[in-house]
């Protein structure tokens, strides 16, 4: 098992955002975390990355990393594509990409930059332009490229398709699939439930900070438990999930 999260809890003062949640991601697989706004999905990813304080045990590649700084977790092979992309608009596209490699001391950074430009030709053409020239979809690609520059074994992705046009949503999911085919494990938080379940092997549904359901995605898609666990009997959601 590449990532094992056991009994993780996150609180902000008196607000409990995540309670006693356990998830796992197998080497080379995709797992999806689903749930309504405020269910605790971002808090869970941030806790795994070490940017939010949490209780519980996080084990990565056989080591307990719960006490580690986020920088050390990056070096160990975890990278986060944060909610809202968070690229630096006043830096160039290339500088944004290089930020993802800030922990690395090896000599292959330039080669990896070339790989990113092969993967994202739109970024290559404008490598010396400021991040602010990019569309939302292109900024998402840059955020993913920046995370890949850390050479992760596990990529944590926080709502990568949020706010994007249908064309870019498809592009994001195609990219998720091809990165995974190349061996990268991915923990994917998504509002686009249907596409996330199609891409992932295992699915987790959070509700009010607690794990409401977990199963292989094939089972989840067949059963009504998903809609029940998700938001009760909301008919529009049911329609959206099974459409
Ligand atoms: N920095 C913070 N301080 C206080 N409360 C917070 C903070 N961040 C999140 N929360 C609260 O914790 C709960 C879980 O939030 P979180 O962002 O993890 O959920 P989410 O499922 O990612 O939601 P969204 O899809 O809206 O981002 C919510 O009740 C939220 O209001």
UniProtKB/TrEMBL annotation:
Keywords of this entry: Amino-acid transport, ATP-binding, Nucleotide-binding, Transport
GO biological process terms on file: L-amino acid transport
Residue ranges of every copy of the ABC transporter domain listed in the record: 3-233
UniProt key word Metal-binding: no
SUPFAM superfamilies linked to this entry: P-loop containing nucleoside triphosphate hydrolases
Molecular function GO terms recorded: ATP binding; ATP hydrolysis activity; branched-chain amino acid transmembrane transporter activity
SMART domains: AAA
Domain of life: Bacteria
Record-linked Pfam families: ABC_tran
Record has Phosphoprotein as a keyword: no
Biological function: Involved in beta-(1-->2)glucan export. Transmembrane domains (TMD) form a pore in the inner membrane and the ATP-binding domain (NBD) is responsible for energy generation.
Family: Belongs to the ABC transporter superfamily.
PANTHER family: HIGH-AFFINITY BRANCHED-CHAIN AMINO ACID TRANSPORT ATP-BINDING PROTEIN LIVF (PTHR43820)
Name this polypeptide is given: Amino acid/amide ABC transporter ATP-binding protein 2, HAAT family
Organism name: Bradyrhizobium canariense
